[in-house]
Design goal:
The chain is α+β, with helices and mostly antiparallel strands. The protein has 4 domains: 15-146, no CATH class; 151-305, no CATH class; 321-361; 377-513, SH3 type barrels, CATH 2.30.30. It has 13 helices and 17 strands. Strand 9 (412-415) and strand 10 form a beta hairpin. Helix 4 (150-167) packs across helix 6 and helix 6 (213-228) packs across helix 7 (234-250).
Length: 522
């Protein structure tokens, strides 16, 4: 990531002034330049074709009405209505549900007509206030080239709104409220040990208003159904599954269009029913934008590849560098540049102490850092006391049809930078649940090293149910399944397994998420 603009002040910048030098640079890239590759000269041109913004910035850059105003949606012409939930509450701008066939979609043509009228009259027309500075670029169109940011719209919009109904005191009498069960929910949440590919361990439900976007994502994808089981009212529990299925689909590493269209039908039901299950007040811009997310996914691809996560994370890290009150912009740029340079050269530093200092303390990572030592096996010191344990030897021989008299065993191992451990090895993370290439699911008991191969001996998990089931959509299944923990042992090579998330329900049953999120949190 590169910082190409930075505004320091007490208020938001004028976007035309702020973006003008950026647009000039982008225009130069459109004109192209000569580049010689392997002694072959070529003319290379670059075009900006897609953009993503948080909601306040989007309205400023596109020069359109904000999301909480009439015609505040930049994808359709639904104006929305003003709504007051109670006499004491303030006025909200909500978007009532409308069937897809009645949506008046914004397009290049009607945007051009609206822009022309707005310029001629000096008034806002269908949310368009005036010319967008990005109109100067050849292939960037304010409507079609701007993607909805799922981070702000879904995670910090829709899900955060649901949390308010579930846990806030003002909604304690609502049928969906679980406020009186918060202590039990918090206990269940604290017992969850996610694998290391999940960025953080769960924080207390009492501090959910302080959670960051990726924490809401982890909760909905992995924890919610296990934590809310037998607590959330049945109707709301079944309803929540629709949202989980949809989020799994749009965040998949690859998108099947036909499957996405089927899931879209479930999503439309979700949005249509939400006002009756909760209240009309929940129909804010984020809930309305769910109806446009599928089209954004088809146009821009999986939404994990175009969102504000990395920009928000950069903002958060930049704030750590602020120590003075003067020349803030210069200080940030200098420190950011220094941190990136140090990170990029960390792999070439020979002094171990200096290298560890740089890699552990630099907030920013360089895209130039490559994964080293691919295939290298690092065995931890948590080895079993007796490598000749007759039970381990006998079990290994029985599963592999070998006749060894002793084996090397351990409870924790690291391969290709990925940590795996036995469930007997107690840590804050559960890196012991996996799915294999032949679709076997297991919980790791121990590792056995035989020559140049590492084997995983595990207890087999058997699927008993899928978390999502609908008579109307029998072909649709969630990645979240319920499994029975058996006493049957299975064996796999370590290279053939992938870690997954496990949420224990009881000694014999658990929730397991087969959703591969390795592309989300990198």
């Amino acid at each position: 990531m590169s910082i190409i603009g930075l505004s320091v002040g007490e208020e938001k910048p004028n976007m035309d002034v702020f973006f003008n030098p950026i647009v000039i640079s982008l225009k130069k890239l459109e004109y192209g330049f000569d580049l010689k590759i392997e002694n072959v000269a070529s003319e290379i041109k670059f075009f900006l074709i897609a953009g993503v913004f948080d909601k306040p910035a989007k309205s400023e850059v596109l020069n359109m009405i904000k999301c909480n105003g009439f015609n505040g949606c930049h994808k359709c012409n639904q104006p929305g209505i003003s709504h007051r939930a109670t006499k004491e509450s303030g006025i909200q701008h909500i978007y009532e549900f409308k069937p897809e066939d009645s949506i008046d979609w914004k397009s290049k043509r009607n945007y051009a007509d609206d822009l022309k009228k707005a310029i001629e009259t000096g008034k806002t027309v269908n949310g368009v206030k005036g010319i967008c500075i990005l109109n100067r670029l050849k292939y960037y169109h304010p409507i079609e080239s701007t993607c909805i940011d799922y981070m702000h719209s879904i995670l910090e919009g829709v899900i955060k709104s649901l949390f308010k109904y579930w846990f806030n005191s003002e909604n304690s009498t609502h049928p969906s409220s679980m406020r009186k069960y918060m202590q039990e929910i918090d206990k269940r949440l604290s017992n969850i040990l996610p694998p290391k590919f999940v960025p953080t361990t769960p924080r207390s439900i009492y501090s959910s208003n302080l959670w960051r976007a990726h924490e809401y994502l982890s909760f909905i994808l992995y924890y919610a159904l296990g934590v809310f089981r037998d607590i959330m009212p049945f109707e709301y529990y079944q309803y929540l599954k629709k949202l989980i299925l949809f989020i799994e689909t749009i965040l998949n590493a690859s998108i099947d269009i036909d499957h996405l269209r089927r899931v879209e039908l479930v999503l439309i039901e979700f949005v249509e029913e939400v006002s009756d299950l909760y209240s009309p007040s929940i129909m804010l811009s984020g809930m309305h934008e769910l109806l446009h997310i599928v089209e954004c996914t088809i146009q821009f691809g999986p939404l994990n590849s175009i969102n504000c996560f990395q920009f928000e994370e950069l903002n958060r890290k930049l704030m750590r560098f602020l120590h003075g009150k003067d020349l803030i912009g210069e200080e940030l740029i200098n420190v950011f540049s220094t941190a990136q340079v140090l990170s990029s050269f960390s792999t070439t530093i020979s002094n171990t102490k200096v290298k560890d200092f740089v890699t552990t303390r630099m907030c920013f990572k360089s895209c130039n850092i490559k994964k080293q030592n691919k295939g290298l096996i690092n065995i931890s010191y948590k080895q079993l006391a007796n490598s000749n344990n007759p039970v381990s030897v006998s079990l290994f021989n029985r599963l592999t049809n070998k006749r060894l008299v002793e084996v090397n065993t351990c409870l924790k191992i690291k391969m290709n930078g990925i940590v795996y451990n036995s469930h007997h090895h107690k840590t804050k993370r559960c890196d012991s649940c996996f799915i294999s290439k032949n679709n076997q699911i297991g919980i790791i008991e121990l590792f056995i090293i035989d020559e140049n191969k590492v084997y995983v001996i595990s207890k087999k998990l058997v699927q008993t149910a899928n978390s999502f089931y609908s008579n109307k959509y029998r072909d649709l299944k969630s990645n979240l399944i319920i499994c029975n923990i058996t006493n049957e042992f299975i064996i796999q090579e370590l290279k053939d397994i992938r870690k997954i998330v496990l949420i224990n329900i009881s000694e014999d049953n658990c929730f397991v998420s087969l959703f591969n999120s390795s592309h989300l949190f990198n």
